[in-house]
Amino acid sequence: MGFRQLVWALIAALLIYGAWQLLRALVAGRGRAEAASPPAAAALKADSMAAEDADDDDADFNYAPLPSDVVAPAAPAAPPAPEAPAAERPDTFALELELQRLRREVGALRAALDVQQGEIGALHETVQRLVDAPPADSSSLEDSSGQNASPEYSEALVLARRGLSVEEVAARCGITRAEAELVVSLAARGEPEGGA
C-alpha cells in the first residue's frame, strides 16, 4: 500500500467518522425536539388516565382526582410558553463535547485523588510505626558532663572531647568543617570547666 493510498484511506475513515457524529447529533436533536413538546403528550396521557379511571374507579386509588367545575371555578388557561428561538436552544453537539471534557476532568481528578489517598495511607503507616516504636535511648542525647546536647552534634562533641582534629570530627560525623570547628572550640572551652 503506497503513501497516497494510505492518505486516501485516512480521509475516508475521517469522513465516515464525521458522518457518524452528524447522524448522532441529528438523532439526539430530534429526541430533544420530541421531549420539548410536552403539552400534547400530557394531554394524551391525561385522556388515557381518565379512561382507565372510569373503568376501575374503586379498584385502584393511585390516581389524581380530576378537577371539578362544581367545586372550584376553572382558572383561566395560561398562555403557552413561546418556543425558544433556534439561536437560544442548546447545541446538542456542543453539549456532548462539554460532557466528554467534564468526564475527562473527573477521571483525572479521581486519579489524582487515588494517588493522594495512597500517599496519605503511607504517611499514616509511618506515623503509626513511629508511635508504636520504643522510645530512643535518652542517654545518647547527653554529653559526658550530663548536659543535654543536640543529637546531631552529640557524637561530634564526644569525639572533640577525646581530642580528635577538626577534619576527623567532620569526616566521622558527616558535618561541615565550619560546624566541626565550632564543636571543637565548644569542647575545648567546656573541658577546663568540667575538669575543675
Instruction: Tell me the total number of β-strands.
Output: 0
Task: Write down the secondary-structure element order.
Answer: HHHHHH
Beta fraction = under 5%
Helix content: 55-70%
Distance between the termini: 98 Å
Query: What coarse outline follows from CA principal-axis ratios?
Result: elongated
Low-confidence stretches: 138-146, 192-196
Largest sheet: none
Structural class assignment: mainly alpha
**Mean pLDDT level:** 75
Rg over CA atoms, rounded to whole Å, is 42 Å
Count of helical regions = 6
Q: Could you explain how this protein is built, in words?
A:
Residues 137-151 have a biased composition (Polar residues). InterPro entries: DUF2802 (IPR021244). This is DUF2802 domain-containing protein. Residues 133-152 are annotated as: Disordered. The protein has 196 residues and is mostly helical. Among the domains are: 101-130; 149-195. Helix content is 66%, strand content 0%. It has helices spanning 3-35, 38-55, 92-132, 151-161, 166-173, 177-195. Helix 4 (151-161) packs across helix 6. Residues 138-146 and 192-196 have low confidence and may be disordered.
In short:
With 196 residues, the protein is mostly helical. Among the domains are: 101-130; 149-195. Helices cover 66% and strands 0% of the residues.
